[in-house]
């Protein structure tokens, strides 16, 4: 059974940093693209960053230059380094594996507030 487990969320002050992790189990990892999505209260889920199996990356304009997505195939883990965080980055962050229509993690809360 495929499982994605996110961690690393929390409360941080504006301008701070967090690193999210998403560990996969029960599946081959290296051949699939991966993404980090986020959903703020009352808003639709949106793509923040994605990385292909070959390591190419794309970012939403709102996070470009502040967030970095990376993957460690040996550890079956995808990361999202988030710097210069803003209150508008507050959301539940989900990772997704582009397998069989999409496999989602349970999400981790990120709150940016002073």
Tell me what you see in this structure.
By secondary structure, the chain is mainly beta. Helix content is 0%, strand content 50%. The chain has no helices and 11 strands. Strands 2, 4, 5, 6, 9, 10 and 11 form a 7-stranded mixed sheet that branches. Strand 5 (46-51) and strand 6 (57-59) form a beta hairpin. It is globular. The protein starts with a strand and ends with a strand. The model has no long low-confidence stretch (mean pLDDT 97).
Average pLDDT for all residues: 97
Number of helices: 0
The counted number of beta strands is: 11
Could you name the ranges where pLDDT drops below 50 across 5 or more consecutive residues? none
Shape: globular
Q: How would you summarize what this structure contains?
A:
The protein is mainly β and 114 residues long. It is built from no helices and eleven strands.
Q: Which labels suit this protein?
A:
mainly beta, 7-stranded mixed sheet, 4-stranded antiparallel sheet, 11 strands, globular
What is this structure's SSE topology?
Blueprint lengths: L2 E5 L2 E3 L5 E8 L8 E6 L6 E6 L5 E3 L7 E6 L4 E6 L8 E7 L5 E2 L3 E5 L2
Parallel strand pairs: 2-11
Antiparallel strand pairs: 1-3, 3-8, 4-5, 4-9, 5-6, 7-8, 9-10, 9-11
